[in-house]
Amino acid sequence: xxxxxxxxxxxxxxxxxxxxxxxxxxxxxxxxxxxxxxxxxxxxxxxxxxxxxxxxxxxxxxxxxxxxxxxxxxxxxxxxxxxxxxxxxxxxxxxxxxxxxxxxxxxxxxxxxxxxxxxxxxxxxxxxxxxxxxxxxxx
Amino acid sequence: xxxxxxxxxxxxxxxxxxxxxxxxxxxxxxxxxxxxxxxxxxxxxxxxxxxxxxxxxxxxxxxxxxxxxxxxxxxxxxxxxxxxxxxxxxxxxxxxxxxxxxxxxxxxxxxxxxxxxxxxxxxxxxxxxxxxxxxxxxxxxxxxxxxxxxxxxxxxxxxxxxxxxxxxxxxxxxxxxxxxxxxxxxxxxxxxxxxxxxxxxxxxxxxxxxxxxxxxxxxxxxxxxxxxxxxxxxxxxxxxxxxxxxxxxxxxxxxxxxxxxxxxxxxxxxxxxxxxxxxxxxxxxxxxxxxxxxxxxxxxxxxxxxxxxxxxxxxxxxxxxxxxxxxxxxxxxxxxxxxxxxxxxxxxxxxxxxxxxxxxxxxxxxxxxxxxxxxxxxxxxxxxxxxxxxxxxxxxxxxxxxxxxxxxxxxxxxxxxxxxxxxxxxxxxxxxxxxxxxxxxxxxxxxxxxxxxxxxxxxxxxxxxxxxxx
Lengths: 139, 470
What we know:
The complex is a heterodimer. By secondary structure, chain A is α+β, with helices and mostly antiparallel strands.
C-alpha cells in the first residue's frame, strides 16, 4: 500500500502539472501605442527548475480549453517565412492567440515575460505553451 | 537482385510515410512531417521521445484500427535510432573528452544498449570497454582541469542590456524579442551598440540602415521583404547615419495587436496603405504608368484619404510602430514618398529625428568563414577579458538540440563566460533575441531569462563568425 502511494506521488510530481501553483492578485504592465499600461490583475503563477509561468485564473490547474490536451493540436511553425524568430510567438499564433510582451509582478519582483491572449479572460505565458507543446512543434 | 531489394525498401519507406496516416481525420500533415523527421533523425540518434509524442498524437487523430500499423512503423525507426545512437555517442565521447569528462555520452551508450536489450533486440552494437571508459575519463578530466584554469568567470552585461545592483551583479535582464521577422542581425547589432553607448538603440532602425542601399533596396523590394543580413555591416551602417533610440522607434511595442499581427505584417500593412494612397491620388498615364493628380483633384483625394484614415474607414495600426508621429506628419511623409519602400524609409527618418551621434568613435568588424574556429575562440576570450561583448553568427538549431547544427543561420551576442563545475565545461552565455523564456532551449544548457549558457564544445561546432568593436 505504501509503495503504491509512493508511486502515485512520484507520478504526480513527474506530470506536466506544475507543483507550486498560486493564484492571487498581481500586476501586469505592457506598452500600447507608446504608453505604459499598468494594471492590477488576478492571475496564477507557477515555476519549475527551468522557468516561471503565469496564466489566467480560469486556467487554474491548466484546465482551460486552450491548454487542454496539446496532443490533439500539435503545431507546425515551419511555414513562417523566417525560420529564425521567437518560437513562442509563432506557437501562440498557431494556437489562435495574440502574443504580447509584458512585465508582471507576483509577490515582490517584476519579471519580463510574454503572454498569449486567447480571449478577454484567458491567457498563458508563451513559455508555458512551449513547455506543454514540447515535442509537438514542427519547426 | 540487391539493387531491386534496395529499390523496394526505398519505395516501401516512402509508402510508409505516404499512406500510414491517410485515414487520420486530423493532423495528417503534422504526422507525415513528424514521421519524416523521425526517419531522418534515426539515421544518427535516438528518437524514442519523438516517437512517444507521435503516437500520442496518432491515438487522438487516427482511427483505432490504424494505430498498430503506425506504431509498428514508428517503433522500427526507434530501434534503428537506438542502434545508431550508440555509435554516435561513442564518437561524441571521443570529441567531448577534449573538453571534459564524457559522463553523459558514456551513460547514453549504456542506456541505449539496455533499451535495445529490453526490446528483445539481438544485434546490439558494442559498448565501451572498461579500459576505454577509463581512458576517456582520464583524458576528459585532464582537459577539464586545464580549461578550469583559463575559463575565468566574466560577465559583461550592463545597462541597457541588464540592470545591476550596487555590487555590479545582474538583477534583471532586458531581453529583446524579434518576433518572427528575420532581423536577428539587426537586434544583435543594436545590442552591440547599446552596450557601448549605454543607450537602447532601435533594432528596427538598424535594419533599415542596413537595407538602405542594398541590392534588394535597389531593385525596389519592400522593407518587409528584406530579411537576413550581417551584424557588422548593419552596426556600421547605423552608426554612419546617426543612431535612433528605442524610445524614438520601438522594436517591440507593436506586439500588442488584437489582429495577431507581427512586425512584418504591420510593415506590410503600412506599405499597403501607401499603395492605396498611390492608387487614389494618381490616374493612368496616356501611354503607360500612372501620373499624379493635380490641383484640387489631388487635394480632394489626399484629404479624403486622411479623413478615412482618422475615422477608421481605412483601418490601420501605423501608430503601433510610428507612435512618435501624428497623423499630419504621417500624411506629409506619404505625400512626398515615391514608393512603399521610400515611404517606410521616410517614416523611419522622421521618427528618428534628431539622430544621436555616438560620443565615442565606434566601428565593427567580423571574423567568419575564412577564420579558424580556434582563432575565433581566442577573439571571444580576449574581448570578454577586456570587458566587451561580441556578436555571434551560428546555426540556431543548436539552441534546442546541442547535437544539431544543421540549419537556421542566426545572430546573437556572447556576453559572459563561466566554468561549469557540474559538467566540467567552459560555458559561454549567448544573449538571444527571442524574449525571456528558457522553455525552447536544450535542457542541458543552463538558462537565465532567455540567456543560454552553451558549453564550448557545442559552441565551436555551431559557430560561423564573430563580430566585435575595433
